[in-house]
Amino acid sequence: MTSSEMVGTRHRLVGGGRALLLGLVVLATFAAVAQGAAVMSVDLGSEWMKVGVVSPGVPMEIALNKESKRKTPTTIAFRNGDRVFGEDAQTLGVRFPANSYGYLVDLLGKTIDNPMVDLYRKRFPYYDIVEDPVRKTVVFRAGEEQFTIEELIAQLLQVAKGYAEDSTGQIITECVLIVPGFFGQAERTALLSAAKLANLKVLQLINDYTAVALNYGIFRRKEINETAQYFLFYDMGAYKTSAAVVSYQLVKDKATRETHPVVQVLGVGFDRTLGGLEMQVRLRDFLGKEFNKMGKTKTDVFGNPRAMAKLFKEAGRLKNVLSANTEHYAQIEGLLDEQDFRLLVTREQFETLCKDLYERVTAPLDKALTASGLSLDVINQVVLFGGNTRVPKVQDILRAHIGQELAKNLNADEAACMGAVYRAADLATGFKVKKFITKDAVLFPIQVVFDREGESGNLRQVRRTLFGAMNSYPQKKVITFNKHTDDFQFAVQYAELESVLGAEANTLGSHELARVELSEVAKKLKAGVVENVESKGIKAHFVLDDSGIFSLANVELVLERTVTKEEEEADETTFQKIGNTISKLFSGDSNDKPSEKAPEGTEEKSEEEPAEKETSSNDKEEQKSTKDKEDGSDTKEGAKTENGTSATGEEKKLEEGAEAKNETVKPKIVTVKEKIPSKVELTYVSPLEGDLFEASAKRLSALDEVDNAKKRRETALNALESFVIDAQVKLDEEEYASCGTSEEIETIRKRCSEISEWLYEDGSDADAETYERKLEDLRTVANEVYARHWEHRERPDALNALKQMINGSEAFLHSAKNLTKDTNPEKDVFTPVEIETLEKAIRGTIEWRDTEVEEQNKLARNAPVRLTVKDITDRMAMLDREVKYLVNKLKLWRPKVKPTPSPKVEKTVVDEESGKKDDDKDSNEERTEQGEDKPEEVLEQTPEMEESASSETKSSEEIDPTKTQKSKPEVDEEHTEL
To answer: How many CB atoms neighbour CB 701 within 10 A?
Structure first.
């Protein structure tokens, strides 16, 4: 490298240093913000589990499992203290079916007497299912071990969390979980309890069809306009079938006046027992009967759990093959009593087994259309998703029913997961996504039931609907109780289930959700209702959040106090009057203030508009009162003059008369709210909480400790075995053997031999600490030899790097000698001392290198190393510091420019000729504009300052804080809006 090339390179590095440093700062800042910002979604299906992830700078994707597959069986198995998941659990389940648990999701939130639990027992007769003594829920028992359904689901979620963390390389704590739309309050709260056990914060529970519709919409955003477009999404999974009618439309937000796409669920239909699992079970039973007919053994195959598990697995494989082929052989080796089974099954036979199931295929679609109030002719497309929509017979039935082609442009397995992870990024704080509003629909109406005394004095039961069928949510509702003057209670229940579920209404379990007891009602009324105070009733505020979970927000007594003019004046102190007077002097008129707050009151009132209609007359009075107040405010505003000054005498009289009239007719009303104590008792399956939750958490923690200990032991054993084998192989090579003395080589061989014998005899059952200790001892013996080998291998490269640095330094020194005062007076960059110092450093390094290399070459390879790689790198660092010092000085050097003489003579001549006293000022101004009196050094600095400014401007554009600040309210508005 020549001196000019070297100097040029140095200049480029230094010149780009600012941009490079800024880039590193930006990356470091982003990395700090991004740490822990990744989120995930989990599609926890009955048969398969898919995990979606998104992290800063990385697009949405599906996390791979340890087999590098995109979906994992939702199966968990236990055997001899070991716990396995996914395909390993399925394999173990064939041998030990009672210890392998699958198809668990639909058991969430179910009591032991639920029809869905009975169906599960019928499908899988080899499970030992018992009742939880406290919560009456499902518990799986295998020997001495027992697991609640929440514990099993929590372990599956932990596995999903592990896959997501491995995919993103970040710790994940937040997620969106996908649930079937027909999940009620019990199922949803049970899933939240399971997620809490798995140390996951659930941002939202999203219905599967809503997640699919969101995924479908975000990739077709440009096709959405102000005209509503209707789509029907049809899903047939392993356990259930559902259909949902949704609309896509651009809607303008009244508050922000921004237009965003909205996907709204309009109608839903479902069949919770129609799916691929029922088809597989029927095929399993068919194969079992055929095997019994063969008479190969006297043992009934249906009485052997292991044989039934084998048949179930083969039925699943056969079902998938028959979707693409007209016939196929079912084959099982050693099915029962060491007898093999082989049978040809045709697609026609399979379809005959499922004939009644195919008759139910179109029912969910028709129910969804009926609930939405739309007909098929307005539906743009019927879109399929779910694994079992691939069955040809299902597609033929749907195609014939709707009279048009089916849309298959969705990934049937991953569409829901990808839509949910988009929603997760929207809800999480570390992302900025394009706003896409989702509005889900209530499937099971919720009502409030309470007793009220009738005119005859008898109590009668009153029912008021809170959240009606197909009402959109999230939303809030308020119900007013204005006839109760003492403590009372009311119930919250499902309503009109017969019209939604029909004969399957009991699958939801308890129809009553909660009982609410209100206390201190009489006490609050007695204390609150005094002169000029009127009770507006007790208002109960209810919430149905974006996860579809119902809750009671609060209960309050609303009182309205009428304030007369005299009371208002009496309440106003002298200081308040002085303050009001001063305020008027500076602000014109204090009457402006109420008008500013009017929208706030109006907005608060609008939240109560969808309240229960029981107190319609009372509501009308409230609305009239609100309207009167607004009218009064408008009247006062209209009476003001435009410029805020005092009016004429006649105008004053009119104004005073109008004010007096308003004060007489429309007195001031103050609303007072008193909180009413309420006790809520859940009457459906209670969530896992308190001591029961702590006990479950301890059991899962103990399982995690066992797994971690097992992984640690396996890792330590593998590391020890690998090191022993590697050492034995290396010592047979001359390259390594020459680096150790005969005693060292013999010691290492002996220790490796001892450990090998121990591993295959007594050490096979040792713990992780023992393996780790033996590995450390062996490394201590072998590392001395390995270190010498490394030094001899790396030394040539290090010496070559030192040689290149010496050559470059000498080239730079040659150029630097021409930049001294003696050689080049106009470019006196370096002093003779600096040149001499660098020259000594280069000469000293060369002498040191030659001496050390010569001495090292005299030593044997197994002798202690004299010239180490570290010594070489230290010398390189010292030489590099000397060169960098001179390079930086050259970069900062500026040529000295002689200052231009000031034009004082011209100034004197001009003054004498003009004879004006003001010419000094004019001349100074003119010279200031032209820059004549500025030193040239400043002129030389100006481009650098401009470049710095432009660089800073460019940097700010790269960081773009303005964009961040602008985008932040949008994110807040999104969350507030929901």
So the answer is: 11
pLDDT for the residue numbered 785? 92
Q: Are the CB atoms for 300 and 312 separated by under 8 Å? A: no
In which band, very low, low, confident or very high, does the pLDDT at 503 lie, cut at 50, 70 and 90?
confident
Give dist(CA 200, CA 204) in Å, integer.
11
285: left (phi over 0), alpha (psi -120 to 50) or beta: alpha
CA-CA distance, 425 to 37, in Å (whole number)?
9
- From CA 802, how far away is CA 875, in angstroms rounded? 8
Residue whose structure tokens are 């590697």: 726
Q: Which residue has the tokens 């809490």?
A: 196
Residues contacting residue 911 through CB under 8 Å, at least 6 positions apart: 919, 920
Dihedral of CA atoms 691, 693, 696, 697 in degrees, nearest 10, equals: -110
> Cβ(200)–Cβ(161) under 8 Å?
yes
H or E stretch including 754?
helix 742-759
Pairing of strands 475-481, 58-62: unpaired
Helix%, strand%, coil% for the chain, nearest 5: 55, 20, 25
In contact, 191 and 153? CB cutoff 8 Å: yes
- Say how many C-beta atoms besides its own lie within 10 A of residue 509's C-beta: 21
Query: Residue 87: what are its φ and ψ, rounded to 5°?
Result: -65, -35
Question: How confident is the model at residue 581, as a pLDDT?
Answer: 47
Q: In whole angstroms, how far apart are CA 267 and each of 118, 212, 374, 430, 680? A: 29, 15, 9, 34, 31
Backbone angles phi, psi at 260, to 5 degrees: -135, 150
CB 179 within 8 Å of CB 191? yes
Q: Is the pLDDT of residue 799 over 70?
A: yes
What is the rounded radius of gyration, in angstroms, for the C-alpha atoms of the chain?
41
pTM over 0.70: yes
Q: What is the pLDDT of residue 765?
A: 84
Angle of CA points 754, 760, 761, to nearest 5°: 85
pLDDT in tens, 617-659: 334 334 433 334 333 334 333 333 333 333 444 444 444 454 4
Task: Return the bridge partners of 61, or none.
Answer: 53
Neighbours of 385 (CB within 10 A): 26
Residue 79, SS3 per DSSP: strand
pLDDT(875) > 50: yes
Q: What is the pLDDT of residue 921?
A: 44
Which pLDDT tens digit goes with each residue over 313-366? 999 999 999 988 899 999 999 999 889 999 999 999 999 999 999 999 999 999
Distance of CA 518 to the CA centre of its chain: 38
| 123 φ/ψ angles, rounded to the nearest 5 degrees | -75, -35
**Bridge pairing between strands 446-453 and 437-441:** unpaired
Asked if 865 contacts 791 with a C-beta cutoff of 8 angstroms, the reply is: yes
Q: Hey, how many other C-beta atoms are within 10 angstroms of the C-beta on 452?
A: 14
Four-point Cα dihedral 565, 567, 571, 573, nearest 10:
60
Say which residue the tokens 């053994």 belong to: 297
Q: What average pLDDT does the chain have? A: 80
pLDDT, tens digit (0-9, with 9 covering 90-100), for 239-283: 999 999 999 999 988 888 889 999 999 999 999 999 999 999 999
The predicted pLDDT at position 429 comes to 86
The Cα 515–Cα 520 span in angstroms is 17
On the CB side of 476, how many CA atoms lie within 13 Å of its CA? Answer: 15
Tens digit of each residue's pLDDT (9 = 90 or more) over 80-133: 888 999 999 999 999 999 999 999 999 999 999 999 999 999 999 999 999 999
Gap between the Cα atoms of 450 and 853, Å rounded? 98
H/E segment holding residue 522: helix 521-528
The torsion region of residue 81 among left (phi > 0), alpha (psi -120 to 50) and beta comes to: left
Residue 296: both structure tokens together: 């190969």
